[in-house]
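pinned: reference chain
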Amino acid sequence: MDRMFTGFHKMDQQLFYKINGSSQLYRTFFGSITHLGGARISILSVLLLSILSSIYPSIRNTVFQVFLTLCISHLIMHMIKRSVKRIRPYLSLPDVLLHGHPFKDHSFPSGHSTAIFSITIPFMLQFPMTIFILFPISCLVAYSRVVLGVHYPSDVMAGAFLALATAVLISFL
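pinned: its structure tokens
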């Protein structure tokens, strides 16, 4: 089991370096995209969606699911971060290209990835045609976290999975 974990960790680091070692222009682009998963945009999105749901009642239930998914997944994410305490890659690996400001909290799972997928997955489940737009946007936000040097690939995958599991659970309830 220990050997398997070590192998996974090594693969995670190798993939991190391949994604993180990119041009300045590339990092600048992803530095802009990453904000779509940030707290301000996430909260503003839910507020705007709430306003839209009064105009378009057909999305009201989905917007409520977005709100619940975002809140519940973030509570779980914070509990996981506090228990796992994974050090961010720019603090634990040599030669990491950090773009943007450093974070003080732990790395696993990614909060930005959890947020963007928490907002988009309920819409993708309810309105499958939105997958063609929302899934690539969500993946770009998650990918940006690795490009910017603040998360390992497994951090963003865990955040996306946490949002998916929460959204699916809420949609069944």
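why pinned: Helices lie at 2-20, 24-33, 39-55, 60-84, 89-92, 111-126, 131-147, 153-172. Residues 30 and 144 are 5 Å apart (CA to CA).
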